[in-house]
Amino acid sequence: MLFKRFVLLVTLSIFSFTAFSQAESKKEGFKIGGALRYNMLATSYESGGSKLNPKATWDTWRLNVDGSMSGIDLSFEYRFYPTSDTHFIHHGYFGYAFSDNVYMNVGVSQVPFGLPGFASHSWWFQIPYYLGLEDDYDMGVKFDLKPIDKLDLTLAYYRQPEPAGPGADASAGRYSYDVVPGQGAFVDSNGDIVLADAAIQELDQFNARLVWHFADNWNVGLSAQAGGIYNSSLDETDLSTAFAAHLEGDFGRFNLKTEVIRYDYSGKSNSGHVLDVVQMGGYGYHYSGGDGYTGGVAAKANVYVAGLAYTFPVSWGPITSIQPYIDYSMVDKDVEIFHDTHFLIPGMLITAGPLYTYIDYALGKNQPWLTDSFGKGLGSGVEDPGWNSRFNINLGYYF
Asked: The whole model's pTM is what?
């Protein structure tokens, strides 16, 4: 019934907006592009500095195809991650402009939730990315609507997450983080954390985002997400929700990004217990605690995000701009005995033609990618953790 109402709403919107002038014809043809990226890094985690510091890794390479023919657009990107021994689709959709005010795409597209584009300035993204709430991609249909000037409305329905590629764990071999089958956990009546198998996955997700461009280079918005977390062992689906409010804008050469998120990844274990930790995965990995306790992600939490950047235009050979920034995000988990996650990234972006260089000093407390014990931080976390750090330089050539 919910799906039928959604389809009816979208259909009425299309008929309403197509009454306006049709979009101008696009130039036909296709462009093939891509990118090659390397990382140079040095880590300082619980065990101290690594003997491998510093080291270089092959971050990724990718292929892109973008273009239009007969008014139908195609946008496709496939990525290869040698260090993770996996590869997968980033996005791939067909698009069509019904009018200047209605654009539809079908396939794997960016989920309209939170800040448009990215909630971050750095190469690392902010914590919402690791929760599947920033730069997330799923399989479905999306409509970009402009009901009035300065107001953007996006509606979407996603049947399932994007297709997974091969890897150490194929269900987690994907670009964006999604709820996947694996071990979860719940807190019992004695206050103990109990491990539990959970054959869960995301299904039938609906998204809506409203963005108001209230001033030059400023926008404020609200996002809502509702979907199912299906347990194939129980043959039951639980409602999962997320809500966000954001503010973004430029003042002078400064750029400000702020966001508040409330999410509830409701799901059950195979034995029917409501989970306080759900398993998520990406890049071929589950979040794993490495100590007999599953990592996973706290099922309910509030997330706070802020980032500030300043752009210096320069003319130093091929270098045209330098942008220092500082990004911060934290996860305030609902379960009292869980420990919060903090993520702080001071850094800068150097732009030189097609070469983009991110220089970051990433600091984290209970951040699963900044630890010797991968994955536990977004679940129960550890009490009173110190700041782990990683100095990272990412060089990317985009063409």
From this structure: 0.91
C-alpha–C-alpha distance, residues 33 and 59, integer Å: 17
CB atoms within 10 A of CB 117: 11
First to last CA, the chain: 45
Separation of CA 225 from chain center: 14
Task: Please identify, in words, the CATH class of the domain defined by 2-398.
Answer: mainly beta
- Judge contact between 159 and 273, C-beta under 8 A: no
Alpha-carbon distance of 344 to 129, in angstroms, equals: 14
Q: Which residues of 304-341 are buried (b: 16+ CB within 10 A; e: fewer)?
A: bbbbebebeeeeeeeeeebbbbbbbbbbebebeebbbb
The DSSP element (H or E) to which 129 belongs, if any, is: helix 127-130
- Neighbouring CB atoms inside 10 A of 52's CB total 9
Strand, coil or helix: 42:
strand
CA angle 298/302/307 to nearest 5° reads 115
pLDDT tens sequence across 302-344: 999 999 999 999 999 999 999 999 999 999 999 999 999 999 9
